[in-house]
């Protein structure tokens, strides 16, 4: 029986070898709009990994449409770089496509030399807080021709197809939506007029490139914007796009301003494919589904049930470029799954950095990090089997060193299983399993349940020592912190302690919030039970929502600082804070805990002292580094280096990258 994932697919005149697409994602790897070797190496790796179609971008159509880190397609000067990129992808085995876009009001004056961004109407976005300048009709006509000219350059450069981004809150969808289009001319008002700009762009591109150059459109299935386009309007737009010349639709979700999470780990795998299915049932061209499809099993299911004709696996192929080939050759157990943390891919863009990846430290550094067997194999001892230690052991083994990994507990993973305990965070537990399977593929000696001390080091005397001994939870100097009803958040997340009905959590950082949400789920109704009641219309929707969000515990989160979750990434923090409200967690900021009593917690807020009743008090005030072996190793003259929380408490991203760098640094 043929594997649907690897069945050919024809889009227009282009036949693809499989149904896996890497969609366009801004990588911020260009310099002044020009293709860099870094970008080429990134995409070459993904093409070699077996994707059928790689869409790069987005690419600009004029100097106001993007920023210098984008791929430039708005001038002929960019043709040599575009030509090299197309050839690089094709020679590595994939078909190559470019996505064209104009950011509209999502652009920022910072990237435009102080000029105002442009849009259909002068309505500020929550993303930039800037008010754009409304476009004149003559400028709209010019923009349409700029799209067409850029598409012609893409074709001239040798790409196999072109895609137009008509969703996500960028310029075309700004014209389409009544939220951002308040024009009174031929491009505003009724849906027919609001569709006009996007349709004229597609018509102009088709005229410029001819009928035999495949044209894809990325369109929203749902904007998730209250008062925006309805589903019916988006379907009408989709039909008109196909009539204007679109050969395939790539169904996207949400705007950047939308309050529905779209890419982070709490989003269930493949959940938005229902939107693609709606389009596929009514549209006569191939439909592509995307968002949180990070495993071939999910992809195959979506294809088999008729939700789509192709799957877009973006961040999944950032994390593991070889995912398609591993799936094709029966090596799916070797896949490193994207955990949807957004720390390296999306959050980096807010920092004006190039895309990186928590799961894959090679991302963006493909050329510099190719494994090269050492000419001087050494015996390397890694102490600590958490994220940093496993990453270090893998990197050292790939260099050809003899590696022993010791872990004090009986299992590997460190803090990753705890990180995967809160609701919507299970992907971190998957990462721990992925790393362990990677270890098993290398000749690494793993010694669980092994305490490394001075005697062990004297006996084994490794050539190099990597200390990934992690950290320990801090017990703050608060009176009463030693009372029996006081527990550590780590133990709550490890499910080794019980908590009462009234819980006070001290510390509003990431661990405190995750612990609060974990406890808030206690007593809420399961998804299976909710579906049963929903299908049988046993309760009204509002009651089902209450049952899904109202647990059996009263939880209060106390933080000294003026905001919660400051150590979350930007992409994750806003959703976590919303969940605290949804699940009825009481949050107190700028609040100091004076003491813990047998019956609760005494706090000071705005100069007033009050007491919160508590059956259990949970400490989530931070981590201290644990590195007792450093001094011993120095005395024994064993070269050593610290990584992860043993060096400085930080995020999983830092632990994995530090471990990787340490393992590679051993010559």
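Sequence proposed for the structure above (667 residues):
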């Amino acid at each position: 029986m043929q594997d649907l994932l690897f069945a050919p697919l024809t889009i227009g005149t282009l036949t693809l070898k499989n149904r896996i697409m890497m969609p366009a994602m801004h990588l911020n790897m260009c310099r002044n709009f020009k293709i860099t070797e870094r970008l080429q190496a990134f995409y070459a790796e993904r093409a070699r990994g077996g994707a059928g179609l790689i869409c790069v971008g987005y690419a600009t159509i004029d100097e106001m449409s993007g920023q210098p880190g984008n791929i430039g397609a708005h001038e002929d000067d960019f043709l040599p770089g575009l030509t090299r990129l197309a050839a690089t992808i094709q020679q590595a085995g994939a078909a190559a496509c470019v996505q064209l876009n104009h950011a509209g009001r999502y652009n920022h004056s910072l990237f435009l030399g102080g000029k105002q961004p442009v849009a259909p109407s002068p309505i500020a976005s929550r993303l930039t807080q800037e008010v754009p300048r409304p476009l004149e009709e003559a400028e709209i006509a010019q923009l349409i021709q700029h799209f067409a000219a850029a598409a012609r350059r893409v074709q001239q450069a040798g790409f196999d197809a072109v895609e137009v981004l008509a969703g996500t809150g960028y310029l075309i969808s700004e014209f389409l939506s009544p939220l951002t289009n308040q024009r009174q001319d031929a491009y505003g008002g009724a849906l027919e007029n609001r569709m006009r700009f996007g349709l004229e762009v597609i018509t102009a591109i088709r005229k410029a490139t001819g009928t035999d150059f495949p044209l894809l459109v990325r369109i929203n299935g749902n904007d998730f914007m209250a008062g925006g386009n309805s589903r019916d309007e988006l379907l009408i737009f989709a039909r008109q796009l196909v009539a204007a010349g679109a050969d395939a639709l790539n169904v996207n979700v949400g705007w950047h301003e939308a309050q529905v999470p779209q890419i982070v780990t709490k989003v269930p795998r493949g959940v938005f494919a229902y939107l693609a299915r709606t389009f596929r049932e009514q549209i006569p061209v191939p439909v592509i589904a995307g968002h949180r499809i990070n495993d071939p099993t999910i992809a195959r299911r979506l294809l088999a049930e008729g939700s789509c004709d192709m799957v877009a696996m973006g961040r999944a192929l950032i994390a593991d470029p070889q995912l398609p080939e591993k799936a094709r050759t029966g090596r799916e157990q070797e896949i490193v799954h994207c955990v949807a943390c957004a720390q390296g891919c999306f959050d980096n863009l807010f920092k004006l950095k190039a895309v990186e990846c928590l799961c894959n430290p090679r991302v963006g550094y493909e050329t510099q990090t190719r494994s090269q067997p050492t000419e001087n194999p050494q015996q390397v001892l890694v102490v600590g089997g958490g994220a940093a230690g496993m990453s270090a052991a893998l990197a050292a083994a790939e260099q050809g060193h003899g590696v022993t990994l010791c872990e004090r507990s009986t299992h590997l993973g460190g803090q990753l299983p705890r990180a995967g305990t809160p609701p919507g965070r299970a992907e971190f537990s998957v990462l721990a399993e992925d790393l362990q399977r990677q270890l098993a593929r290398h000749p690494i000696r793993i010694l669980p349940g092994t305490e490394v001390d001075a005697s062990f080091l004297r006996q084994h005397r490794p050539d190099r020592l990597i200390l990934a001994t992690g950290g320990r939870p801090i017990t703050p100097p608060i009176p009463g912190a030693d009372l029996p009803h006081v527990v550590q958040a780590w133990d709550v997340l490890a499910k080794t302690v019980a908590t009462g009905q009234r819980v006070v959590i001290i510390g509003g950082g990431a661990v405190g919030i995750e612990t609060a949400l974990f406890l808030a789920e206690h007593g809420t109704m399961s998804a299976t039970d909710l579906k049963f009641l929903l299908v049988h219309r046993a309760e009204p929707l509002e009651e089902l929502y209450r049952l899904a969000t109202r647990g059996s515990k009263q939880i209060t989160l106390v933080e000294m600082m003026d905001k919660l979750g400051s150590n979350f990434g930007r992409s994750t923090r806003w959703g976590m804070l919303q969940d605290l409200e949804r699940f009825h967690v009481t949050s107190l900021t700028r609040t100091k805990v004076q003491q813990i009593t047998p019956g609760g917690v005494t706090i000071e807020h705005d100069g007033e002292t009050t007491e919160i009743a508590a059956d259990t008090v949970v400490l989530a005030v931070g981590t201290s580094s644990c590195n007792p072996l450093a001094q011993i190793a120095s005395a024994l003259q064993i070269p050593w280096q610290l990584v992860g929380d043993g060096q400085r408490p930080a995020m999983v991203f830092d632990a994995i990258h530090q471990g990787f760098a340490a393992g590679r640094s051993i010559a």
